[in-house]
Specification:
The chain is about 30% helix and about 15% strand. By secondary structure, the protein is α/β, with parallel strands linked by helices. It has one domain: Spore Coat Polysaccharide Biosynthesis Protein SpsA, Chain A. The strands form 2 sheets. A 7-stranded mixed β-sheet has the order 3-2-1-4-6-5-7, with helices on both faces. The chain has a two-stranded antiparallel sheet with strand order 8-9. Strand 2, helix 2 and strand 3 (about 80-85) form a beta-alpha-beta unit. Helix 6 packs parallel to helix 7.
Length: about 325
């Protein structure tokens, strides 16, 4: 799941500098033939730098695949990936991240519930130095949209459990958002090991530098089709398995990077320093705020420690 030998998150696809876009949209789609064309048209009207759309089709049977085949021939910015059968959202999105070519990535749904008009704000926040910009359904100027009582209770319980299990999620208004932008080189390398729906939680625990900002928006109503989320006990098992996987990732990163986590608000890692843990500190946090920075770590000793654990230390970067 966590591999320090990998240089990126995952490695950015190389190519001639003039062909590499500034932004890659990662769009997972399953039977979205009615909404996807409208979304792509809207992206074309936004004030954005160069972009591409990596669309992961998970075995659609409603014409989505045929639309993408035609669209990719007329618009080379649209790059479809076709899977033979449905998979969970996290797996599909990660497949898109792996194929994306840009240093800045925007992850969103294709059902028109995520408001595309805030995308320029998300990208602007990343360009101004933030590592992660979250489209938030909560806070001033935000709305979670119309919901049934059942949907509201499920969302509240899911968020409470996530914040209990994942310390890095506790300071976020909307840690379960599916709409966000991030800078590829600001995260430790990892690969999601479980299916699920919450890629953002993985990013929250894998962040190595830069601050996080939340951009409010109004969550819209689905106009076409039905939700693809697993329901009932199947969802509960899948969600808890995903949270356990993310918690393990958080612990692995904490154990390997105690001396180079970002200082709160600094936007840069504290490399070359070792943290002296405080007994009251939550050691499971991906960004521990407690502990005392003391004398620089001997690079040779640090290298020995990492070698002994079978881990190679490489940070995330992307080709220039």
């Amino acid at each position: 799941m966590y591999d320090r030998s990998q240089p990126q998150i995952p490695p950015q696809v190389a190519g001639p500098a003039e062909t590499v876009p500034h932004v890659s949209f990662v769009l997972a789609a399953l039977n979205e033939a009615k909404s996807l064309p409208s979304l792509l048209e809207t992206l074309d009207t936004l004030s954005l730098p160069s972009w591409e759309a990596v669309v992961i089709d998970d075995g659609s049977t409603d014409g989505t695949r045929e639309f993408l085949q035609l669209k990719s021939h007329t618009d080379p910015r649209v790059r479809p990936l076709f899977n033979p059968a449905p998979q969970t959202l996290t797996k599909a999105q990660w497949q898109g991240v792996a194929a994306a070519r840009a240093p800045v990535l925007v992850v969103m749904d294709t059902d028109l519930q995520h408001d595309p008009t805030i995308i320029p704000n998300l990208v602007m926040e990343i360009d101004q130095g933030h590592s992660l910009a979250i489209g938030s359904r909560y806070g001033d100027g935000a709305s979670a949209g119309p919901r049934t009582m059942y949907r509201t209770m499920v969302s509240i319980i899911a968020e409470v459990i996530a914040k209990l299990m994942i310390p890095a999620a506790r300071d976020r208004k909307d840690p379960l958002s599916g709409f966000f932008a991030f800078r590829r080189d600001a995260f430790w390398s990892f690969t999601p090991q479980h299916g699920g729906y919450k890629l953002l939680l993985y990013l929250l625990v894998a962040r190595r530098s830069g601050d996080i900002v939340e951009v409010p928006y109004e969550f819209g109503c689905r106009k076409y089709g039905d939700s693809k989320i697993t329901r009932g006990l199947g969802f509960v098992r899948l969600y808890l398995s995903e949270l356990l996987s993310i918690r393990r990732l958080s612990r692995e990163i904490s154990a390997n990077h105690l001396h180079d986590f970002p200082v709160a608000g600094s936007g840069s890692p504290t490399q070359g320093f070792e943290q002296t843990p405080d007994p009251s500190c939550d050691r499971n946090s991906a960004t521990p705020a407690c502990g005392v920075l003391r004398s620089p770590v001997d690079p040779e000793e640090s290298s020995k420690d990492l070698s002994a654990s079978g881990v190679q230390g490489k940070m995330l970067s992307h080709p220039r």
